[in-house]
Specification:
Layout (H helix, E strand, L loop, with lengths): L13 H74 L17 H32 L6 H36 L15 H6 L7 H15 L1
Helix pairs in contact: 1-3, 2-3
Amino acid sequence: MVAKKKTSPKKKSPTKTKAKAQAPRKKAAAKAAVKGAPKKKAAKAKAPARKAAAKAKAPARKDAAKAKARARKTAAATAHADNGDALSRSFVPYAPRKGEEYMNEAQREHFRQILNDWKLQLMQEVDRTVSHMRDEATNYPDPSDRASQEEEFSLELKTRDRERRLIKKIDSTLEMISIDDYGYCESCGIEIGIRRLEARPTATQCIDCKTLDEIKERQTLG
C-alpha cells in the first residue's frame, strides 16, 4: 500500500489578515462619511449666507457706531457753542442800593470781574481744544474714520473760532469800561440796564433797539 502524503494547512498571508481586520473599520468610516456628507453640504450651503449676513450687518453696525459718535460730537459742540453764554452767568447778581448812580465805580468793577472771568474760561477752553486735537490726532487707515475725525475737528475749530471772536469782543467791552463808556445803548444812548448786561455783558444796545435790528434783519433776509 502506498502511504498518503499529509498536506499541511496553508498559511494565511499577513497582509490579507490585516486587510480583513481593517475592513469593518473602513466600512464604518465610509458609512460615517456618507452620513456626514449631507451635513457638510448643508454647512457649505449655509456658509455663503452667513458671510453675506455678516457683511450686511457690518456696515449697519459701523453706521450705528458712527451715528452715535456724531451725536456725541454734535452734543459736545453744541455744549461748547452755548458755553460762552453760560459762562457769563457764573456770578453773584449785583444788588443796587436805593438812589445809586447808574454805572458807578462799583457797578463797573462788577462787570469788569464778570468779563475777566468769562475771558479766562474761554481761553482755558481754547487751550483744552488744542491739547485734545494734538492728543487725538490719528491717521486712521479707514477713510470713513478719517472723515469722522476731520468732521469732529472741524466742529471744534468752528466753536473755537466763535469763542476767539467773542474774546475780542470782551476785550473791546473792557476797553469801554475803562473809558467810562459802558452800559449805554450805541443806537439811542439810553441805559441798557444792569440785568440785561448781566445776561449779556457784551451787549451794546438796549432791548428795544436790539429787537428792531433783529426785525429788520429778518425782513431783509426774507
